[in-house]
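subagent[fold] <- orchestrator: predict structure for attached chain, return tokens only, no commentary.
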Amino acid sequence: MVLFARVLSSTGEYAHVELRDHYIGIRHVAKQMGLPNEGDSLHKSLIFATLDATPALVGVNTNVQESPWKEQLVLGDSPFWEKDSEGEEDEEEAEVEWETEDETITEYDDPDIVVDAYLAADSKLEDVVAHLTRIWLPELLEIWTNPLETKDQTISLMKRISKAERIFGKSVKNAWRACLSAGIILKFQDPNFFLGHRYSLGEYTVTGNFLAMLLHQSFLVRILYEFNQLLGVRDEALYGRYRDLCVRIWACVPGFSNLDPVSALGLFKFILPSFEPATDEELRHILNLNIELSGHGVTGNADIQKLRPIIIMVGKKYTGREDFRAPLNDNMA
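subagent[fold] -> orchestrator:
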């Protein structure tokens, strides 16, 4: 199946969309293959060859070995929060509630508007990831290490991050609502899931990109919360916004069962920081979902206490509370 797909796509005579059914069949086979068997080189090579053959599901590269959240980015000359006029709006207006999802949103009836909303958020994600990893995290670590000597620096950086978060958050919300209205994101009532509802985001790239948007927005909000505390301000409303973003990520986890095990595991590892505000009971519900994590340090309820330090460590790294450059020393890395 893989060889056949490669031959057909390489000739240029078949559009990606014409091979969609074939790729869906390949993804189905990949799900049945399970996680790579470390002792079987043939099994491992077949799994990754199979996954590598499926980028055409939506006409873009969905190779599981390539990150959909684009960690390695080149900094642009002018990030969006310095050039978008929308960033000057009133903060209360920028923080519109997400929960209008069950309403009919006519402004998103045009497919072009839906695509534009998604691409706008994805473009802002690139700016956020680039500045977070290249500029903000090193500066935040310096502030965290010497809080008494960096008060003015802290205030200045918090203003920049706050503005970026407001604009980025509004763009992510618009993209989410647009895709929800268009049926790209589906919301289901699920009494068997502890949140009472869940989301299905479709294929790997869309799922990965939206999780990246939500996760990086949660990073920015958590940064604002933690470093406001250094200034003597404990903002519980800000922490509530952070947790709400994390909960939205958790509601996407049941949909991982629609992906092949390798992709599902990759996304689960990626969203580990979102579980930092979870209680043990909430984390137990997450681990009880049908995600193949055996052989990767997580096998069930007994491993919650083993997983918790990893979650906290990763969360601190991406919110400036620990050195993000230090290697992860865990068996899920």
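orchestrator: received. Logging for downstream: The first strand starts at residue 186 and ends at 189. Residues 54-73, 86-96 have pLDDT under 50 and may be disordered.
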